[in-house]
Amino acid sequence: MRSEFVSFDSVRDNAIKLAHTIAREWGIPDIIYVSLRGGAAMGNVISEYFKILAGRKKRVLYAAVVARSYTGMGTAGQVIVDGWTYSPEKLRDGQNVLFIDDIFDTGQTLNSLVASILDTGIKREHIKIAVHDYKIRQYLSKPHPVLPDYYCREFVLEKPEDDFWIHYLSHEIESLTGEQRALHYEKGDPEMKAALLYLETNK
Length: 203
What we know:
alpha/beta
């Protein structure tokens, strides 16, 4: 499977622009949930934007949920939720909830998390989903009921063979070839090379 590498600076800049769009079209959320690990880079930037925008007018809660479904590059398994730093049971009717993740790929994780919020009685119109990348899999006969409301980039995949792996340079260092490590991480830094080589030879 081919890979695309996305720099942290690109994610940061796109997150600021996306937060601006959300603010103008939807307003300031009451709580932001970031899906760890992938959503952290986007979430930190967007929460900072809304914290500044809200000022003393309102408090924007920033929380995390640890959820996972990937078992390897391009492989998805069952969604497992390890925990929420702010329980959905504490949410009140009418609060606006913003979910942030790096990518809507298979859609399993975000649909599972949104279902947990809906189960508390929060209505769908009070929940928005923001991702950096949105893969639209046209070959699926039954798309997920919950899709992203806001995204930075979209990719239309007409068949499974069109799929590719988006590698976020902000945190992903797994499944790299030697050439990819040298190009995107080491960049002539001998300490970085030694650190990544250690991972490769001691895992």
